[in-house]
Amino acid sequence: MQEMKSHYEDLIIKTEIAERLASLGTIAAGLAHEIKNPLVSIKTLAELLPERFEDPEFRTHFTNIAITEIDRIECIVSDLLDFAKSSEPRFEPLDLNRFLDSIILMLSSQLTKRRIIVLKRLPEDLPIIYADHSQIKQVLLNLFINSMEAMPDGGEITVEVIRDDGVPDDEKVIIRIKDTGYGIKDDDKIHLFKPFFTTKGSGTGLGLSICKRIIEKHNGEIEIESDYNNGTAVSFKLHVRKQ
Ligand SMILES: Nc1ncnc2c1ncn2[C@@H]1O[C@H](COP(=O)(O)OP(=O)(O)OP(=O)(O)O)[C@@H](O)[C@H]1O
Ligand SMILES: [Mg+2]
């Protein structure tokens, strides 16, 4: 029995290593591609600089482009570091109602500016859950920001929490962020959780893969439903008690 168990554990470890290596490959390929583009534009301009140095318009152009592109690389690297950190969650009691309010408050000026209304639907008897505050905040911010970016002309975000007490002694909550944005094309749906998958000019494409990683570390699940041109709903399930 002991032998079988250790063989099984061995298998799990090997699978985990294989998965880590595979995602490391995807990350390295994506990172190389993402960083190469800004580097090429900086290099092209830098090569032209000696002969165009006296041209003030070129110098201004060079400075602007160089700073923007360097900012972009900095952003990619810092997102990647967050992704690589992958620290174990610190499970602490969390009051979802107040937590959601603080996140909505944090985004309020952006929401107003973008003419986005947030509706909150929570059950009255919502239990305190156990989760890592800063990690769940990161998940919610990523999801809110994706929804905001999907509604350039304004719209509605509905945040809903549903109790799921289907399994005795293992109550869960489902948190759902739904928007009325431009939605996701069917062809893109299988790529959403892949690191560096983005359809945005300025996105790094790490947001959803970070969310998935965090939710899985909480032994939860995350899924996305979307209707192209009509809106998107991202739901994640968390155990109320640490599992
Ligand atoms: N709410 C949403 N509505 C429409 N499309 C979405 C939504 N959320 C995610 N997507 C699609 O999934 C892609 C990946 O999302 P993800 O958050 O991982 O990266 P990103 O937003 O492009 O960049 P980053 O989050 O790193 O700034 C997006 O580029 C977009 O195409
Ligand atoms: Mg995003």
- Bound molecule types: adenosine-5'-triphosphate, magnesium ion
CATH architecture level-2 label of the largest domain: 2-Layer Sandwich
Q: What sequence of helices (H) and strands (E) makes up the elements?
A: HHEHEEHEEHEE
User: Mean pLDDT across all residues, rounded?
Assistant: 88
Amino- and carboxy-terminal Cα gap: 24 Å
Strand fraction equals 15-25%
Number of helical regions: 5
- Lateral strand order in the biggest sheet: 2-4-5-7-6
Helix content: 40-55%
Give the class-level CATH name of the largest domain.
Alpha Beta
User: In the CATH hierarchy, what is the superfamily of the largest domain?
Assistant: Histidine kinase-like ATPase, C-terminal domain
Summed up, the domain count is 2
Question: What's the count of strands?
Answer: 7
Flag low-confidence runs.
none
CATH topology of the largest domain, which one? Heat Shock Protein 90
The biggest beta sheet, please? 5 strands, mixed
Query: Which word captures the global form?
Result: globular
Rg of Cα set: 22 Å
> Which structural category do the helix and sheet elements fall into?
alpha+beta
Structural commentary:
The protein contains five helices and seven strands, in the order H-H-E-H-E-E-H-E-E-H-E-E. The protein is α+β, with helices and mostly antiparallel strands and 243 residues long. Helix 1 (2-52) runs antiparallel to helix 2 (56-85), helix 3 (96-113) runs parallel beside helix 4 (133-149) and helix 4 packs antiparallel against helix 5. It is globular, with a radius of gyration of 22 Å. The strands form two sheets. The chain has a five-stranded mixed beta sheet with strand order 2-4-5-7-6, with helices on one face. Helix content is 52%, strand content 19%. A hairpin with a 3-residue loop joins strand 6 (221-227) and strand 7 (231-239). The protein has helices at residues 2-52, 56-85, 96-113, 133-149, 207-217; strands spanning 92-94, 116-121, 129-131, 155-164, 172-179, 221-227, 231-239. The protein has two domains: 2-85, Orthogonal Bundle (Helix Hairpins), CATH 1.10.287.130; 92-239, Heat Shock Protein 90 (2-Layer Sandwich), CATH 3.30.565.10. Bound molecules: adenosine-5'-triphosphate (ATP) and magnesium ion. Adenosine-5'-triphosphate binds at residues 79, 142, 146-147, 150, 179, 181-184, 188, 192, 197-200, 203-209, 232.
